[in-house]
What we know:
It is a single chain. The chain is an alpha/beta fold. The chain has a domain at 1-104. Helices cover 46% and strands 11% of the residues. The protein has ten helices and eight strands. The chain has helices at 11-17, 32-38, 66-70, 75-89, 99-104, 123-130, 139-152, 187-199, 204-226, 232-249; strands at residues 2-4, 24-26, 41-44, 94-97, 118-119, 156-159, 164-167, 172-175. The strands form two sheets. The chain has a six-stranded mixed β-sheet, sandwiched between helices. Strand 4 (94-97), helix 5 and strand 5 (118-119) form a beta-alpha-beta unit. The protein is globular.
Amino acid sequence: MVHYASTKENEKIFLKLKTSFVDGMVIKRKDLAQYVKEDDCILMGPGMVRSEKKPLPSSSPPINTLNDVFLLKDEPLYTYHLTHLLIKNFPDKKFVFDAGALQMMDPSWLLTLETKPILTPHIQEFHQLFGTDVTKLPLPQKQDVVVRTARQHNCIILLKAIEDIISDGKELITIHGGNAGLTKGGTGDVLAGLTASFNTKSDQLAASVISSFALKKAGEKLNKTVGLFYNTTDVIHILPKILNELFMVY
């Protein structure tokens, strides 16, 4: 069961979504804590607004509860504080951080979690969060940086690139394959959602590897029939077939 919550600004969109979203529940923000308590994994970031600079604590109003967060009008500030407060209040939960949450959070927060979170940054988000630019590094050096950073911050990193690099600070897995069609907007959200779904019941490293591998295989299969002219919806529709084939083989 998927529970989905977003900002007040997106309320009308999600009211419409409720008429066709049969695979989960669109919940009100005021009920967020209640649902977080019962959920196995929390995915944060897709669709959340970010800014180029993270807010300084001294420039923010005191935020102690989720209701304080919901009163914020500044959306990047909302992303920053909501991410922080959920980490603070639910340190025992499994988290997957993507997109807006990655770009607004403080990496020191990761060390307060009891279970290693999964981070799914692209190269620019990795740079923004950890302060290390790996853009021009050869693959072996990128791998070293990812392993070291995952170890320092007690997390799983799934660095999205031509070759996805995944590490928990000890193990290192590099996923090859895919194609340029997977650079389209929305495919990163699919990867984050897929990772969170496997993370509910699986080992975090395994969840990350399976998700990366399956997404790249989906892009390759679509490329055989429509070239690079596929979109995120096409990827979502073909993923069940890809996953079924993978699990039948392995």
